[in-house]
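testing teh design pipeline on a random one, pls ignore if ur not involved
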């Protein structure tokens, strides 16, 4: 029996929705998503980029970062990480993860790679506002927030926060699972960890970004992981 127009429309809509989902969220990041392609500025895996958004506003974009310009006096960090240097000729804002950062003369690092936003004040001061709360972050201090509110400021490890600008990833007693997640931000392909116990191992190491492809081999040699290399830059550690 021929299918009814209603059934054909339903099936067609379901197929279109499935295709759209694949296009918007490509499997394993094998190609840019629609969101990436639509961003005003973006960096690919392993790429860093310098922007001069105004005579007094310099932005350094880290790997896998998306930025949309918002008027003349601000931008939205859609995802990723950026360092913003403001020379003090006027107020400027950065929107990220449901919050807003405002400063005049300051240098700040903003990271939005998960459910929380991490703001580090490297110089000057910055005001952080989210969910009706507001705090001023002083030089050398760091704060996390999500859409529900702000956490208390803490002392920042400024050298570690800014290490990516000098081409180095630095880890000090960081669980291996988190180290691998960070490596995947800079390295084409993907590293998979198939050992939960190994993933909890605290790691102390430095990796030069120019040698990021060697990171899985370093982990195998230092922490006894078994390694299997696959085509396309994919590696399985267990």
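output:
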């Amino acid at each position: 029996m021929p299918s009814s127009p209603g059934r054909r429309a339903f099936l067609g809509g379901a197929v279109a929705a499935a295709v759209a989902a694949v296009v918007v969220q490509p499997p394993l990041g094998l190609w840019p998503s629609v969101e990436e392609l639509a961003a005003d500025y973006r960096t690919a895996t392993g790429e860093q980029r310098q922007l001069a958004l105004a005579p007094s506003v310099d932005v350094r974009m880290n790997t896998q970062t998306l930025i949309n310009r918002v008027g003349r006096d601000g931008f939205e960090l859609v995802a990723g990480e950026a360092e913003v240097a403001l020379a003090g000729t006027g107020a400027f804002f950065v929107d990220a993860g449901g919050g807003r950062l405002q400063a005049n003369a300051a240098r700040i690092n903003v990271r939005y790679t998960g459910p929380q936003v991490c703001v580090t004040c490297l110089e000057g001061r910055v005001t952080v506002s989210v969910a009706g709360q507001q705090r001023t972050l002083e030089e050398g201090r760091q704060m996390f927030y999500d859409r529900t509110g702000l956490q208390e400021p803490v002392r920042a490890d400024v050298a570690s926060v800014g290490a990516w600008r000098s081409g180095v990833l630095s880890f000090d007693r960081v669980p291996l699972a988190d180290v691998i997640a960070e490596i995947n931000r800079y390295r084409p392909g993907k590293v998979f960890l198939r050992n939960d116990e190994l993933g909890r191992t605290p790691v102390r190491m430095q990796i030069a970004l120019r040698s990021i492809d060697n990171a899985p081999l370093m982990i195998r040699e230092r922490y006894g992981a078994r390694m299997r290399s696959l085509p396309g830059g994919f590696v399985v550690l267990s």
